[in-house]
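Dock iron/sulfur cluster; give full complex structure.
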Amino acid sequence: MKNIYDLTLDELKLWMKENKESEFRSKQVIEWLYKDIKNFDDMKNLPKALKEKLNSNFTMELPKVEHEYTSRLDGTKKLLLALQDGNLIECVIMKYNHGNSICVSTQVGCRMGCKFCASTIDGRVRDLTAGEILLQVIVGQKVLGERISNIVLMGSGEPFDNYDNVIKFLKIVNADYGLNIGQRHITLSTCGIVPKIIDFADEDMQITLAISLHSTTDDRRKEIMPIANKYSIKEILDACKYYIDKTGRRVSFEYSLVKEVNDSLEDAKSLGKLLKGILCHVNLIPINEIKENSYKKTDSEEVKIFAKILKEYGVETTVRREMGSDINAACGQLRRSYMETQK
Ligand code: SF4
């Protein structure tokens, strides 16, 4: 049965019309979805007949929190959620001084094949619906007991491989009838699907675009990211420039530092040369070491030197703070290890 959280206000209006109900009821229903109620019968201002129709057409079930891990170091929470069909996804809630942030998944698994990522090991199982992405934020707020004000689409899945559902999610989460989270408080991360970057630029939104770059040459990128066989770094950068022109937004480049793979002084210099003059920001990410591969984390002193070189090229750079290191489970790893224990 369809989950009502999958509907936009316009879709619900249409449903009301088709079901001979007044249009204003749709706003009432949507408002209830963001209050602490469990089922349609709790929607006090609706007539009984409408509640019955809703009950027989929709569910408003939330994903079940299968496991919750909380970092004793910084309060970061990782949630393993079971969807209606039993598939498992994960999301991470981070507490910052400027507010709570959630990293959501957009697919069950992923088919992009990035070598450093546990989400892709078993491939893509299925896309998440807009409602399933949204419900991660809603459940996150319930677990936390506080508002979440920032969202990053950087969990399992490639958002642009599930484009329509992701766009719908962004519209609902931003709407004043939804969670009303500002577009500028949302970051979408892609491995670099060029035509979708162009489409996204044309959506007329103000989302921060983040590109998983991780390499400064196409050959090296191909070794760790199969998508590089399809789109070159030059094509990605051209698409990013188009995004910047259309939106006026600064683009973020994610660069995971892997010891003795892409963390040399030469790498820092070529990254600086590549991005010099582009309205951008680099996020240096010391990798999470996972048991599925042998990649090692760059030493913190070397990370600082790498960042310093980028700054010398005028490229704004931050080193991503490690969050929840004591509940260490890189993206996709929690789901995998849980599934292994169930076998
Ligand atoms: S890093 Fe992102 S795009 Fe690459 S395999 Fe993992 S989830 Fe997919």
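Observed: The pocket of iron/sulfur cluster is lined by residues 110, 112-114, 117, 119-120, 156-158, 191, 212 (CB under 6 Å).
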